Amino acid sequence: MAVKLKRRSVALLIETSNAYARGLMDGVVAYQRQHARWSIYMGEHERRASPPLWLREWKGDGIIARIENEAVAEKVRRLNVPTVDVSAARLIGNIPCVETDDKEIADQGARHLASRGFRSLAFCGDRSFLWSNAREDQFAAVCKELGLECSLFMAKSVHDDDYSSTQERDRLRKWLKKLSKPVGVMACYDFRGQQILDICREIAVAVPEQVSVVGVDNDERLCSICTPPLSSVIPDAYGAGYKAAELLDQIMNGEAVTSEVYRMPPLGIAERRSSDIFAIDDEDIIAAERYIREHACEGIAIADILKAVPLSRRALEYRFRKLLHRTPHQEIIRIRIERVKALLRETDLPLAAIAMRAGFAHADYLSVAFKKVTGVPPSAYRKQNSKVASY
Fold first, then answer.
1. In this structure, are 211 and 112 located in the same domain?
2. Pfam families under this entry (predicted)?
């Protein structure tokens, strides 16, 4: 006899106003369609808003929420149903939380800028957000590790709208003017990156020649309307939503789930024109780097680079490492692995086909190189991050 499964009612307290939150919802919906029988309820909800009125009458089985103020936290406590938090605020400590790995986000952003040869880096954050503070700390730590000059700017605002005030824009304008240039700047998220680009245009500072900028969230619409288009760290919002839904399902099924923080590492960096520059005074190494970026996935070797630049192998290796802090071979592998990651996420191609498209001689070599760099085999990475057949 077939067993009739109960359809559970799940509420989402997640805003729709930004790309990260929409990615969270995509992940939740994908899990629900693949594994669970849920009726999902989600009304209009703004970030940091009071609990929505519909929540007063809602009678359901579980909640996935961005709990970012005490009013929402108290309402969730009173409902006393299985809950998973997807906010870094951590206002309820005894429930599982899924959030971005902010240290890894800042690490990737800082190293992306350092890889372009910048000796001076800067971080623009907002102390009203815990995730921004974590990114600031890690950014400064990477700068110290690499021996780079580091400048920090923290917004004084409590609310996003205040950041656009004349006073705050004046503070940011003065800070940008004082920075040692050329400088690589990381914004705590894409909206800050857009503001930095706007002010650079106002004060006639060239981007990316004098100020190179990278944001966080990879909001493709926002990044594309920036002038120039904004490079951005790609958080795994989809994976975070999927994980949150998986945890909630386990709790509602009576399984034991610890109240720990599950941190989702970023997926890489979407490189656009705002950071498409090499802040080094060595035309040969710039030419070598550009050649690698354009041809790394074509199976090139160091001998091919030497045909493109007038250097001996020893000189190439020495100057490349001195200026960009890695060897030409490491750069080739890095670019190939980023290509593999994208193909694993966005296609269902077999590993042999991915190896061919990324410049690896065969799938076995790709697997070994991928695990060495990422810590997981390609199959595990695809399982965790694939966007194919999610709906």
1. yes
2. HTH_18, PBP1_XylR, Peripla_BP_3
